[in-house]
């Protein structure tokens, strides 16, 4: 039997309230048509949304803040629990871990945040228009990286333990609520929901090439395709800043030897511009092409993890209405 635990939603809500003094808890709350993370307190703890795809803010923001002082000793903070991250975001941490936890160049600021955080991911029980995780071999439910996978079914919360950290968390709350092993029949119901969503995502993305094939067709693409699709790009950088795996940054020197890391984006007009005004990328179509080469050609040469997890945020955020999947379908044909 799998390592599943179950408790009533009312008991789960009570657990969250009881552990608030020990943890900073973030979870998605839906307001109108918007779903995004909020800091949980006694008043909003019962409003958490479960098993919905994609909060607006990517998970990476919790580990790579938009701006961060790397030289000032931060005050020690409460340990964090992040609830409700979909697996596309969870798998995005794979490549961030490869970059920032490289044994030869460990980023201590990133590592401290990773070590200090319990990730309670949720399976997606429905989809959004541009979800295409399955095309890249990523399931709409977590099996690794996260510490716990949460599924809300009827009046119960089911918690599947995925890591030692997750097991320790379950052990720590057993005295706070009545927790039992999930019945096999309810586990099967969860797996049926997961399978249904997998098939739905596969069906809606027919003809979209997988990650490896995308790299091959992108590398062979002619300049005309980049000129065509970049014609509506306004260089806002939304596609990169909202991406769960994009991680370019500036390191800014400040007085008193302070170093400020500020996230950057390859689509910004000043990206790669140096003193004297020289710019290695220059024209917009080259910048546009650079983003896709980075994700699908160059990153696979350097890292084992995927640089795109199929979340679809870049499509949704684009002011110019650029759909990268339309580019790839056109190239594939």
What does this structure look like?
The protein has helices spanning 9-19, 87-100, 108-115, 164-173, 184-204, 211-220, 223-230, 238-241, 284-302, 313-317, 324-332, and strands at residues 4-8, 23-31, 34-39, 67-69, 79-83, 117-122, 148-153, 156-161, 180-181, 249-254, 258-263. The protein is an alpha/beta fold and 333 residues long. It has 2 domains: 4-204, no CATH class; 211-332, no CATH class. The strands form 2 sheets. Strands 3-2-5-6-7-8-1-9 form an 8-stranded mixed β-sheet, sandwiched between helices. It has a 3-stranded antiparallel β-sheet with strand order 4-11-10, with no helix packed on it. Helix 6 crosses helix 9. The longest helix is centred in the middle third of the chain and has 21 residues, at 184-204. 33% of the residues are buried.
Number of domain units? 2
N- to C-terminal separation? 45 Å
Strand order of the largest sheet: 3-2-5-6-7-8-1-9
Uncertain runs are none
Mean pLDDT: 94
Task: Name the shape in a single word.
Answer: globular
Main pleated sheet: 8 strands, mixed
Per DSSP, the total helix count is 11
Give the helix proportion (percent range).
Answer: 25-40%
Cα radius of gyration in angstroms: 21 Å
Order of helices and strands: EHEEEEHHEEEHEHHHHEEHHH
Secondary structure category: alpha/beta
């Amino acid at each position: 039997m799998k390592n599943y635990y179950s408790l009533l939603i009312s008991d789960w809500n009570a657990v969250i309230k009881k552990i608030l003094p020990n943890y900073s808890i973030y979870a998605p709350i839906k307001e109108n048509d918007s779903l995004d993370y909020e800091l949980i307190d006694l008043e909003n703890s019962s409003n958490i949304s479960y098993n919905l795809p994609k909060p607006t803010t990517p998970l990476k923001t919790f580990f790579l803040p938009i701006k961060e002082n790397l030289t000032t000793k931060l005050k020690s903070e409460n340990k964090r629990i992040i609830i409700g991250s979909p697996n596309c975001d969870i798998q995005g941490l794979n490549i961030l871990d490869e970059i920032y936890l490289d044994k030869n160049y460990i980023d201590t600021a990133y590592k401290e945040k990773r070590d200090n955080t319990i990730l309670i991911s949720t399976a997606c029980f429905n989809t959004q228009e541009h979800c295409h995780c399955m095309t890249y071999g990523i399931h709409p439910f977590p099996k690794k990286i996260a510490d716990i996978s949460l599924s809300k079914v009827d009046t119960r919360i089911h918690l599947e333990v995925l890591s030692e950290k997750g097991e320790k968390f379950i052990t720590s709350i057993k005295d706070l609520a009545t927790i039992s092993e999930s019945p096999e029949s309810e586990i099967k119901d969860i797996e049926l929901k997961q399978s249904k969503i997998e098939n739905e995502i596969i069906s809606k993305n027919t003809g979209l090439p997988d990650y490896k094939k995308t790299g091959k067709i992108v590398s062979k693409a002619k300049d005309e395709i980049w000129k065509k699709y970049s014609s509506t790009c306004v260089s806002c950088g939304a596609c990169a800043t909202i991406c769960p795996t994009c991680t370019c940054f500036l390191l800014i020197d400040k007085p008193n030897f302070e170093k400020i890391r500020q996230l950057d984006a390859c689509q910004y007009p000043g990206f790669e511009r140096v003193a004297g005004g020289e710019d290695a990328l220059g024209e917009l179509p080259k910048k546009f092409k650079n983003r896709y080469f980075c994700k699908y050609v160059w990153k696979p040469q350097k890292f084992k993890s995927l640089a795109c997890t199929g979340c679809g945020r870049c499509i949704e955020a684009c002011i110019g209405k650029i759909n990268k999947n339309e580019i790839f379908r056109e190239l594939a044909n």
